[in-house]
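In the laboratory, one determines a bound structure by crystallizing the protein with its ligand and collecting diffraction data. In a computational setting the workflow is compressed into a single prediction: the sequence and the ligand go in, and a structural description comes out. We illustrate the idea with 4AD.
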Amino acid sequence: MIKASSVLTLYNNHKSLDGKTVTLNGWVRSVRDGKAFAFVELSDGSVIKTVQLVVGGDKQCFETVKKLNIGAAVTVTGLVVNTPDARQPFEIAAEDITVEGGSQPDYPLQKKRHTLEFLRTIPHLRPRTNMFQAVFRIRSEVSFAIHDYFHGLCFVYAHTPIITGADAEGAPMFRVTSPGTEREFFGRPAHLSGSGQLEAETFAQAFGKTYTFGPTFRAENSNTPRHANEFWMIEPEMAFCDLEGDMDNAEGLVKHIIIHILETCPYEMEFLNQFVDNTLIERLKDVANAEFERMEYTEAIELLEKVKDKFEYPVGWGADLQSEHERYISEEICKKPVFLTNYPKELKSFYMRLNDDGKTVACMDLLVPHVGELVGGSQREERYDVLLKRMNELGLSVEDNEWYMSLRKYGTTRHAGYGLGLERMIMYVTGIANIRDSIPFPRTPGVM
Ligand code: 4AD
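The predicted complex, in structure-token form:
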């Protein structure tokens, strides 16, 4: 294997590398050839930036480049030449170019700006564009930041099952059956997990602090820019913790992620700031320094009721908030992230802790400008009798959930947790508007 440098290293060290020979592996983004010189733009995936190769001195190189198509994979060796007056701070005077894999002239990513809609039709190639170099590198760094945050707080990472019989949210699920039949492969109904929460609660009652981070699946037929049928969710669960502690932890996580990507992805963030949303970096810096708002559902409804002729869906106590309401609260009323708490119990899941008013549950949704709901969580009902009553009211099977109920019999604790949707977080920090552009291979109704 050739020991190669990387474009990122060159950007960080080009001054001291002036006149030195380096080798790069990468893919051709564009070729311009003239009579005596040719210019090749090369990307190697180490950073969103590309490097310019100047080809002319070596005749064989020049002949090779003349035959190159966009998309070809090459290895190039050449001299670093600093160019302080040019658009790029340095270039490479190529001395040797080897074609590792040629590309056909019909390569779909020619040198022009493609629409995101078109790029969705070629998910196998779109990571090679600037936009997806930025989004998917940031996705990778966000994932790292999440593990880093919980690891720093001594949480234990739990791998909850993907095939499960547990049902936290009551959302439609993808069933898992024997191949070619409708028979229950596992002897009882099973589906792809829509949440690892119930299983994570078992770890919380053993390790104290735990989190899951994995793919989740929902069979909802929602064709919106914010819903996917396969998405990744981060679900921490904490024993001896109430709703306030839950919100503190979620606020800390969101800020940790933002600080991490501003630090580790400066070129990618600059690109998104220039081409997607020119308030992005400023906005995220503000969020990292702001105290998130905390507001009760009841107060939010009162504020929304005062807004005239704006919403498609009616508002009133007891009504679920639609995306237009969620965005109005965070974008217009609070102008920053806001935790909405204590929703009517009818709107929320069976496991949420009943408040003393008997009408609301100790839950929170974190609403953020641009995206709407980013986090959903709650304090859990730790009282066996209250949980049993709620399950009976909702007609849920106590038998199927006996293991979950039994956690309330053996050393039960106050406990709380939440779910952060990774794709919504990516939308939030990149400014992209459609969830289909936040995940490498989006799964949405009718599309795979
Ligand atoms: O509010 P949700 O449904 O909460 C739960 O699943 C709880 N079990 C979490 C917990 O308390 N452990 O989902 C949590 C988050 C949402 O706020 C949203 O960010 C994301 O998951 N989410 C989706 N993201 C993309 N597509 C979908 N269809 C999503 N549904 C939820």
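The chain has a mean pLDDT of 95. Keep in mind that any predicted model is a hypothesis to be tested, not a measurement.
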